[in-house]
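Table S2 (text version). Query chain:
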Amino acid sequence: MGEGITFISDMQKGLIDSISGVLPEAHHRFCVRHIEANWCKRWGSGEYKKYLWWAAWSTYGEDFQDQLKNMSQVDDDGKAAVEDLLRYAPTCWSRAFFDITCKNQSVDNNLTESFNSWILQARQKPIIKMLEEIRIKVMNMLNDNEAEVMGWGGEYSPKTLNLYNQFMRIAQKCHVNGSADQGYEVKEDSDRHIVNLGAKKCTCRTWDLCGIPCPHAICALLYKKQDPLSEIHWFLSKEAYLQTYSHKLQPVRGEKFWKIEPSQNMDPPEFVRQAGRPKVKKNKGGK
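Corresponding structure-token output:
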């Protein structure tokens, strides 16, 4: 039924209806770049765009509301711009409302756009040639990615470790005020958050969203003399990546060896008469 699966799309209505109909328990996110493109046709101000992205990147509700408030104060049309933006359900495009089953906090569809660019030349070819070229590219990609993962020096991806190290540097400036049944109170500058190590949650929601202990969680873990690196989610481990690339595409022989069942034969589409009056006027030259 789609439980535990998260889709991200460009809000194409057919996709929205299909996902909700076929996988009703799946989560659905919208690419903020597509929201920006549609919404900014009316609200093209650079200030509006800035607050749109800050609202999308907000990890908790209070911050999200602050960005909308700032947007409403840009000019006299600010309140109308906010109302227009909220036609897109915030649960689908702001980190503040994302589900925490998916350990990915992306708010754009760059991965899909990169894949589309990667197969751009193949997409110009006839259907069979196109699918064959994509099959070969994906088959090689799976092998290359698996080899790359095998070459990792640690248990987690370089990108994961890079973000973890950034959080570790911020954690050095945080301070644990104390702990109770509800968790640890961690201060960062003038802000304070509550870290629940048992539930692997922090009120900043960064740990919940990306699966990497946030600076506040790292500070609490170090205070408790635990290794923060061991608390990174399994989804980001070498084992998980290798499972992803373990499902290989099997090799096939050339097209002349393909056996096509009559029931699966691909016929050309039926002719459909175009709307409007048929053309009767001759072109120049009598053709």
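Notes on Table S2: The CA atoms of residues 122 and 245 lie 23 Å apart. The first helix runs from residue 13 to 22.
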